[in-house]
Amino acid sequence: MTxxxxxxxxxxxxxxxxxxxxPRIDNPILRIEDLSLWYGEKKALNEISMEIPDKQITAFIxxxxxxxxxLLRCINRLNDLIDNxxxxxxxxxxxxxxxxxxxxxxxxxxxxxMVFQKSNPFPKSIYENVAYGCRIQxxxxxxxxxxxxxxxxxxxxxxxxxxxxxxxSALGMSGGQQQRLCIARAIAVEPEVILLDEPCxxxxxxxxxxxxxLMQDLKSQYTxxxxxxxxQQASRVSDYTAFxxxxxxxxxxxxxxxxxxxxxxxxxxxxxxxxx
Amino acid sequence: MxxxxxxxxxxxxxxxxxxxxxxxxxxxxxxxxxFFGDYRKRSGAVGQALTWLCGxxxxxxxxxxxxxxxxxxxxxLSYFWQKDLMELTLKDGRRILGELWSEEKSAAxxxxxAAAAIDRIRLKIGNRDVGGLDFVWIDxxxxxxxxxxxxxxxxERLEWGNFYGTMAELRQGGxxxxxxxxxxxxxxxxxxxxxxxxxxxxxxxxKGEIGDVNFQIERLRLAEKKLDIEKVSDAERARRKAxxxxxxxxxxGRYDRLAARLSQMRDRYxxxxxxxxxxDGETKEMPVGTVVRAIRPNVMGSLAKLRLxxxxxxxxxxxxxxxxxxxxxxxxxxxxxVLMVFLMSFAVAPMGVLAALYLREYAKQGPLVRMVxxxxxxxxxVPSIVFGMFGLAFFVYLVGGTIDRIFYPESLPAxxxxxxGILWAALTLALLTVPVVIVxxxxxxxxxxxxxxxxxxxxxATKFETIRRVVVPAAAPGILTGMILAMARAAGxxxxxxxVGMVKLAPTLPLDGRPPFLHxxxxxMHLGFHIxxxxxxxxxxxxxxxxxxxxxxxxILVVTLMNLVAIMLRNHLRRKYAGxxx
Lengths: 276, 582
Description:
By secondary structure, chain A is α/β, with parallel strands linked by helices. Chain A is 33% helix and 25% strand. In chain A, the strands form two sheets. Chain A has a six-stranded mixed beta sheet, sandwiched between helices. In chain A, helix 3 packs across helix 4, helix 3 runs parallel beside helix 6 and helix 4 crosses helix 6. The longest helix of chain A is centred in the middle third of the chain and has 14 residues. By secondary structure, chain B is an alpha+beta fold. Chain B contains 13 helices and 13 strands. Chain B is flat. Chains A and B meet through helix 2, helix 3 and helix 6 of A and helix 10 and helix 11 of B.
């Protein structure tokens, strides 16, 4: 059961601003405020506060089990599906609370899309996979759908590879293509934020490079949050990086600064490979 | 303190082979350890024995299946093959004509038990209307002479079974049209053809127009009865009653005209008679139209026999039964079986799939759900006759009785739905097979990965949309597997059906051209029960034994065919979602 305690919005700037945790972000689209999460008795996230910049790529890094995927799944409330989850704190999305009990959770998820660790195309044709989100929203006109499918597949740099076999099963594609299809599926509903949960962990380097390239292309239109195990990937693709460890946000700042000149010892140890 | 030689004491050249040697020694030691025997040899032997055991078990199963099918096919398919007619002259001068059915010979022909030796043959002599017996046993030692006369004729008839003998005369009224075996045989062919057409016309009239009129009259009668119990003013009632009576009069008039025409047709149909002579000289006169088939088996070539075989096979599959099911076809039984299974599938699919969806997708997994699951599994083990009793008590008496009281009060006390019928049979079997569907559907649903569901939810779909658009299609092949198992079980089930609507002989099919076309309240015939009925309840069990085998073979074929269709559907779905989880 999910327990929601939506707090009133706290004052904007705290007096004791920690430069390691609160970089200057001009136009945040998401504000995570004192977010804690328990799986049963186990506390997985501990009072995390951070701001996610609009139309930028933010990376969550950290060793396994540090809570970075959990934090990501809080943003579109996918953790609600798990039994015995308790959440405290709040996430503000464009001045509304994500954890507001009155919110339409499905409408929220339409605005915050997600790409998963393992590609998960539906057992349908390529076309129907991309059109799925639109059909859910009641867009059923063939002409509209054709246009959306083409635009999304082009957006995901997949159009040229699949345009002749849109009616074939999506499960017959290669792993990299499937993952790009999932991205196309996510952008078909025109979300504002795309959450990427280790999108390249099951892909070979070439497919990974294509996804990373794609992320850069999408940057102009979408805010992206990526969870990754791969520190090179984080340094390559992201603008901001957050380092989490054991459910705590250790350090958060512009990627360049985190990787070149980390302020915390733990961050330095992790990114230089001394642990984790 | 190493036991190994230190590098300083031996040269580097020696060291390498030494190390290899010690490794080999260890390996050899492991290999020759006597305590557990030679590991590799032992495991190889056990593995091989196990492979043989498994393969042998499979081979045994296959052998049994092939044996069953072969037995059914041999016994069933030989039924349609025409045997020669044999005329026996016994030592006491009696003559017997018939088909050689079986021979019995005991091996003890020599030595002290020679007296007990058995050597006898069984003939099917037919002519039930003359002699009363279909079969006789004849001791071989009594037979003086065996022959196969060319002019003997075998008649398949609508009544009284086969007739064996020679053709004597063809009559019309008192007038003789032809006499003598050859003349009658020549004249009989075309005449018989015409009579069969007449018979066909009569049946068409009976089932078609007369059936329609009867249906109409029955409807009007019920409407009249309904008027009596309806709450309307007396004037209105009188007015409507008069209208109904006018309609009845019109229908009755039409019926009378049709009946007159029918009786005329019947007279014409029965005008010509055939006089047959048995081998011992008795004569028997019968209308030409009652003969289904007249053949001279002893002068038939293989091709003619093959054609006869085919035509009998078609009659068996497509014809109506006659002579209390011991002859003719079994089409109504095939139709009833297929339709019942079809209706059952329609009932069980939503019931099972929705239950599985709730158990797997919506219910909170806990002790209660576990208990429900155990109960569902146990339900599959309940004897089927118990389901039959439930069907009788609940569907037939309670539900059917209530429907009758509310919707068909005019035909009471004669029940409409309050008696066994194809709907109740299908629902009873649906209950019987629902556990199979639930279990299979649950497994199919469980095999849909969580990440696929999350993918759908993350696109803003609700749980219901996710289940409808992603989960159920992905689980469809698994669900169809359950349906296949359920259909196979339902098609073979007999016991519960005997008390909820299956009958030995149903006058009408549950599906016909009169509204509402599908008559769910009608009783129906079933292949499984047909086997039991023909094999064990018929007055002429000896003659029908091959029919039982043929029917059993057909039942298996029907079930296989229905399963094949379902399997093809499943494979189509699988191909469509190639590489899907289930």
